[in-house]
Amino acid sequence: MSIRYYTIILPANFRLENIAMGPIDRSNFSETLLAWYAKHRRELPWRDHPEPYAIWVSEIMLQQTRVDTVLPYFERWMKRYPTIRHLAKADQMEVLNLWEGLGYYSRARNLHKAAQKIVEEFNGNLPADVKLLKKLPGIGPYTAGAIASLAFGQDEPVVDGNVRRVLSRVFNVEVPVDKPEGSEMIWELAADHLPSGKARDYNQALMELGALVCLPRNPTCDDCPVQAVCEAYRLGIQAELPVLKPRMKTPHITVTAAIIRQKGLVMITQRPQEGLLGGMWEFPGGKLEEGEDLSSCLEREICEELGVRISVGQAFGVYRHAYTHFKVTLHAFECALDPAGQEMQQNGVAAIRWIAPKDLKDYPMGKIDRQIASRIYKELLERGRDG
Is the pLDDT of residue 9 over 60? Predict the structure, then answer.
């Protein structure tokens, strides 16, 4: 009888204990996590801050934004608006200007609106109740839970991207976590393992583990305090989790913008309050439609938005930017208003201003329009130096 030999390829992290049968004992999961957090937590200006307002601001800023990016914005914000009442009294344009560069500008608008509502309805005090928090602009289930637990010590779970990743790996959640079924499972896991009276540290520990150890790519599993109870580590499938629904192809949009000058001033328009970059200022223009060339697009858009005719001149530059769900290529052109006698209108724009280049910095803009504004001012300075 011949003897056959088989080669078995094991995961790189395979250990003998991985073949143990039966369910993993996760009874000390929370305690282990809390002990790790007490030793490895980062010192952050909003962490353990005595003002619930600071926790709220930080949580809004940290949505889809890295801690290192948020730090200087948080410091400037708290210096400018040290209390909810200071924020409520502020002008929206000033608020957006302070937020500029942080992106997702609806967050700033909602912070401002919510502050005004808190002053009107809660005497300037952020409510501790989750149901009341969810009624404030810009506060959903995650942010409400974060404020309630981190600022007020309530036993409320939180689930952000870091928590979702940690729990999906530790408990091997096999369904897409960005679909209702998977999301519900993650929230249940977060709640089930929340130790009574310790939600503040428990929630921060989960988020900290995801930010420092259980990374989206190349997690440092050898440094993980809960490695022994992590199902993904046992199976060697960390890179495959969390499971997400298939991504759609990112659409690409071509847009145009007009630089219209008059008596040393340049025209900018304000976007409507609702929608992308709501309330921000920009150089007027719009989306290229099928069958159009760039000049025809710009002429049509200016006529539709402002009710005037323009002549499209030389190209000013090509600018690119990637938003969350689409990419943009913007073509800017020097333009001139056709002969006088045209009455300017506001069709789809909130306001129109003629601004001196040196004052463009005072008007909050998205990344592309800020690049255009900076170039206009730079070229003006260079012409001045040249005499």
Answer: no
282 φ/ψ angles, rounded to the nearest 5 degrees: -155, 170
Q: Are 168 and 237 in contact (CB under 8 A)?
A: no
Contact 112, 92 (CB under 8 A): yes
The single residue of 43, 59, 174, 334 carrying the catalytic annotation is: 59
pLDDT over 90 (residue 228): yes
Query: What is the spatial distance between Cα 102 and Cα 91, in angstroms, rounded to a whole number?
Result: 18
pLDDT confidence band for 24 (50 / 70 / 90)? low
Cβ of 223: how many Cβ atoms within 10 Å? 13
CA angle 134, 137, 139 (to 5 degrees): 45
- Before 242, cis peptide (omega within 30)? yes
pTM of the model: 0.86
The alpha carbon of residue 101 and the mean position of all alpha carbons in its chain are separated, in whole angstroms, by: 11
Report the distance separating Cα 186 and Cα 161, nearest Å. Answer: 11
Distance CA 124, CA 321 (A): 38
Task: Please list, in sequence order, all residues whose beta carbon lies within 8 angstroms of the beta carbon of residue 191, skipping any fewer than 6 positions away.
Answer: 157
Q: Give the pLDDT of residue 275.
A: 84
Q: Measured between alpha carbons, how far is 209 from 214 in angstroms, rounded to an integer?
A: 6
Confirm whether 31 is a catalytic residue.
no
Which pLDDT belongs to residue 15?
Answer: 46
Instruction: Phi first, then psi: give them for residue 124, nearest 5 degrees.
Output: 80, 5
